[in-house]
Amino acid sequence: MFPALRSVHRNLIALGLAGVLAVPLVLASPASAAAPPGLSARVPRPSTATGANVANPVVTGPIASTTPVGDPAHGYPFLATDVDLKAAGYVEQEFFISGTATSYATRGTDTAIAVSTGNPYSTRIVVRRPVSARTFNGVVIAEWYNVSNQWDQEVDWFQSHEHLMREGYAWVGVSAQRAGVHSTTGLKAWSPQRYGALDVTAGGTINDDSLSYDIFSQALKAVRGPAGTDPLGELPPPRYVIATGHSQSAGRLANYYNGVQPLANVLDAVVLHGGGGVLRTDLAAPVFRINSEGDVSSGILSAAARAQGDSAVLTSWEVAGASHGDWKLIRDYGPLRKRDIGTYPGGYPGEPQTCTLPSLSRIPQHMVQNAVYDHTVAWVAYGVRPPAAPKIRMTDTTPPAIARDGLGIALGGIRLAQQEAPLRVNSGTNTGPGFCFLDGSSVPLTDARLAELYPTVRSYVDKVVATTLADVEAGYIPRSFTRDPAWYSGIRDVIGEYVAAGRISESVASALEDRLQHAERAGLAGDAPPAIAHLRQLAERADGRIGDDAARAGILRVTHALIALLTEARETEHTGR
What we know:
The chain has 577 residues and is of the alpha/beta class. It has a domain at 445-575. It is built from 19 helices and 13 strands. The strands form 3 sheets. It has a 9-stranded mixed sheet with strand order 1-2-3-5-4-6-7-8-9, sandwiched between helices. A two-stranded antiparallel sheet has the order 10-11. A two-stranded antiparallel ribbon has the order 12-13. Helix 2 packs across helix 11, helix 16 (486-500) runs antiparallel to helix 19 and helix 18 packs antiparallel against helix 19 (549-575). It starts with 7 loop residues before the first helix and ends with a helix.
């Protein structure tokens, strides 16, 4: 029924599973599933998440767009993606779901108590999925929309959509909370014609989001086993459904896991990103918690939750230098927010900086999050536990204080190359108005400090390669890491910073950008040889046309580091190491 996760098997080998799961993770029917060596010819486990006690909602759609995306009449899905889905073999569709929901009271790790039943609701789900069943990996990532801004925001899609599409996941966003639907910036106000009939408050009688849990369950039920219209269209029923949520959504999902999952049993696993409270450990569905340095330092991840050790159903990772809201999130989300809300988020390039330090960590935590999803699939499919990871070091817990080196860089935790071979001091902390405390900071190192740290380009390259390959071997990032656009946008950002400072000319930058675009197209497609060739040409142009020694070295460092990573990854693929 399902093909292999085409490169997930390579990722899983690199994710610490060499010798345990060394062939494609096949999410197929038992009769056709390949048997991974080391797992005694076992086939993927069948899901036990039946959702038998969850009502099937009425599904309507897909809802047609009545205006082009961006039209002021808003006849299209709110925050409709600007990703080229067609090129990836994907489609975006919006559906309305309706029915009657139970209001639940949740408390700590106790099972939830039903307060009332039969409450009418109507809301929406957004589906981004493969068009062809041949490319569907059999896994749905169901995201609980974040509504901290008083509108729906799909943080985890923004962070991991490139990986999810490359591996054949389907993604479903669920509008479960009052703020996302009913606030003055919510769906109903944004487009009364499209969303006017939506209601998650039982006609204004229940405004505490106590219906959100059963609404979420019913949305998952519609995806797992629809009674009528299938939101996944021509795709076969998913083998596994994994819930995900960031920040306040992680908190809601933690409550859901503790209180409602024991009653609903409609999901296979949960990924909590940036928060989530203390969790019970007596349920079958596993939980993977990923937190940034900023989540630890701000207390978003509570001391009690952080103190929970890994167990048979809980794995927790922490990423040093990363922030709650980061550079990738704001860069990807910003244009859509400008289009549909009218303003860019704080820290977006070109917008006034309001925080004490330059905001938004550049640590690409999303690479780690990509690995988290693949590990979670292996966990539910084959019972293969994710690898453990070190915690970020602390000097105090009340209030939380991070241990730092002489540059101010956090110690401990999962350490990506951007942390171990720093060009900037990236941190999860910052001060200032609004969300500054969540956005972290990123302060460039001076030319003198960079020259001291990296007396040669090679010294920087060697450290990046060693750190990245160690992260791959440990299982903290996928083996397909070279196909992540962050490597290319990182080079582009360095070029742009030197242009803005007047240290390289626009004409030189244009020549470099030309080669970078060609390299990026090849690299993201997984075609390393031309990507390497174009990057070498970029390096030659930088070496021959930039008179500023420090600027030239800055561009050569990041360019030669990516050349080395692409070369190493290609050699590894050919040798099977």
